[in-house]
């Protein structure tokens, strides 16, 4: 089999049939994209690298049970996300180690006249500024495209909680990314725990 | 809007709370309140501007999914390749697969405690007792696994002991070199560069990703992982203190 001309599904089949190079080819096709997924989910490059390694080895071993009706990329993506979420859960279970607020050389800056590449960098950096509680559901829903229901199931939290955390995170990003024309007009641009003047009159669905 | 209701009978909420609108936008509010608020928002330019800002955030995030992103750094990629090479060898050599994934972070923590560990990842027996097997002082050292630090006088001094490596395990051990720069008897990069030249390599092109002292099939030396100019291929060089070459090959593809 010519690896370069093979589809992802062909490579999985070849791997399951004992071709020792097939899985490696699959990894090289998708590694960098999945690295980006792991990095924006976990922020810490060491943890992202470990999660990606765990995910690929899990996929290597589970390839025999891959079902052709789903896309290989979707299958791999889900394995990587699950490996990342396992690490998020483990991290939440132990004392927190603060990470740098922004990556080296990646200052958040106004977005006027930026190229798409610069915009992506700014968005990635702004995303990294969110608390993990807000960042992870936003990454899963808004970046990776999982539904609120899927995300709630993956994170083991209520759908209302996913929506609420996404809402808080988007509001903060709207400010950081400069989409709000006058973010200080209402002193209620969200931090993590800002009291809302209208809170007593509202009926939130969080936790339902 | 002097009566605070804009003539709708609904209380005027200007200036709008961004939090409230973010909740509305995300579907957090109950349907009745949501319907009432959308009716107000759609007639209020200030509120609409905030909703538009939140839509822009969602657009930015969605575009991130397929936006070009920096590739996986070379030393992480090399580590991944090495782990997958080892997994492939296990799976396709007729040996039993299914050993637990080696947690590199955990492995690092264990090494840092200066314990003599044998990383048993090849046999079902090793799997049954978890990934690592402690080697008692004076007991025969386990070298079946990826790499076993040799208990030595270095223990307890803060200097990592050399890794005991078999030639057939080089691909796996190389994955642990990324980012480490312990030149051992070669002292520094200049010492390594001399050996690179002796082995016919150009130090200016073969950049060092990681170095550490090892014993290769029982012979003491220094293992270096070097760039090759190809993003997914790395050179592994093992030399003795006098630059005698013990191993010179590439991993990855």
Automatic annotation (TrEMBL), chain A:
Residues 123-173 form the RNA polymerase sigma factor 70 region 4 type domain. Keywords: DNA-binding, Sigma factor, Transcription, Transcription regulation. The keyword DNA-binding applies. GO terms for biological process: DNA-templated transcription initiation. Residues 26-93 form the RNA polymerase sigma-70 region domain. The keyword Secreted does not apply. Residues 193-208 have a biased composition (Basic and acidic residues). CDD domains: Sigma70_r4. GO terms for molecular function: DNA binding; sigma factor activity. Residues 95-116, 183-208 are annotated as: Disordered. Belongs to the sigma-70 factor family. ECF subfamily. NCBIfam families: PRK09643.1, sigma70-ECF. This is RNA polymerase, sigma subunit, ECF family. It comes from Actinokineospora alba.
UniProtKB/TrEMBL annotation, chain B:
The chain crosses the membrane at residues 115-136. The keyword Transmembrane helix applies. It comes from the Bacteria. Keywords: Membrane, Transmembrane, Transmembrane helix. The keyword Membrane applies. This is Uncharacterized protein. It comes from Actinokineospora xionganensis.
């Amino acid at each position: 089999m010519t690896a370069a001309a093979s589809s992802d599904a062909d490579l999985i089949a070849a791997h399951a049939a004992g071709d020792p190079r097939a899985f490696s080819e699959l990894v090289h096709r998708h590694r960098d994209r999945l690295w980006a997924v792991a990095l924006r989910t976990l922020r810490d490059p060491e943890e992202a690298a470990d999660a990606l390694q765990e995910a690929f080895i899990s996929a290597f071993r589970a390839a025999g049970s891959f079902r052709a009706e789903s896309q290989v990329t979707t299958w791999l993506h889900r394995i990587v996300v699950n490996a990342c979420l396992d690490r998020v859960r483990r991290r939440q279970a132990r004392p927190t180690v603060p990470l740098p607020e922004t990556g080296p050389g990646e200052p958040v800056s106004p977005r006027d006249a930026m190229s798409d590449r610069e915009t992506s960098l700014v968005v990635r950096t702004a995303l990294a500024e969110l608390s993990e509680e807000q960042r992870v559901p936003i990454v899963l829903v808004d970046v990776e495209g999982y539904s609120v229901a899927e995300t709630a199931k993956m994170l083991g939290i209520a759908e209302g909680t996913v929506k609420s955390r996404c809402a808080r995170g988007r509001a903060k990003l709207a400010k950081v990314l400069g989409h709000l024309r006058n973010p200080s007009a209402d002193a209620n641009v969200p931090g993590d725990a800002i009291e809302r003047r209208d809170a007593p009159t509202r009926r939130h669905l969080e936790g339902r | 809007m002097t009566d605070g209701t804009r003539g709708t009978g609904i209380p005027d909420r200007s200036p709008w709370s961004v939090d409230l609108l973010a909740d509305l936008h995300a579907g957090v509010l109950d349907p009745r309140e949501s319907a009432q608020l959308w009716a107000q928002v759609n007639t209020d330019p200030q509120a609409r501007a905030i909703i538009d800002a939140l839509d822009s955030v969602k657009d930015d995030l969605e575009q991130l999914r397929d936006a070009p992103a920096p590739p996986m750094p070379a030393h992480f990629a090399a580590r991944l390749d090495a782990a997958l090479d080892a997994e492939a060898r296990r799976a396709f050599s007729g040996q039993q697969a299914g050993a637990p994934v080696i947690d590199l972070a955990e492995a690092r923590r264990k090494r840092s405690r200066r314990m003599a560990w044998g990383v048993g990842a090849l046999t079902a027996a090793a799997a049954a007792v978890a990934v690592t097997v402690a080697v008692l002082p004076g007991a025969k050292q386990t070298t079946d696994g990826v790499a076993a630090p040799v208990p030595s006088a270095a223990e307890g001094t803060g200097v990592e002991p050399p890794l005991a490596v078999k030639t057939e395990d080089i691909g796996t051990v190389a994955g642990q070199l990324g980012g480490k720069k312990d030149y051992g008897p070669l002292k520094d990069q200049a010492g390594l560069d001399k050996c690179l030249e002796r082995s016919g390599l150009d130090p200016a092109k073969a950049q060092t990703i990681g170095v550490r002292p090892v014993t290769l099939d029982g012979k003491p030396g220094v293992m270096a992982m070097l760039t090759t100019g190809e993003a997914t291929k790395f050179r592994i060089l093992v030399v003795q203190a006098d630059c005698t070459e013990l191993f010179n090959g590439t991993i990855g593809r």
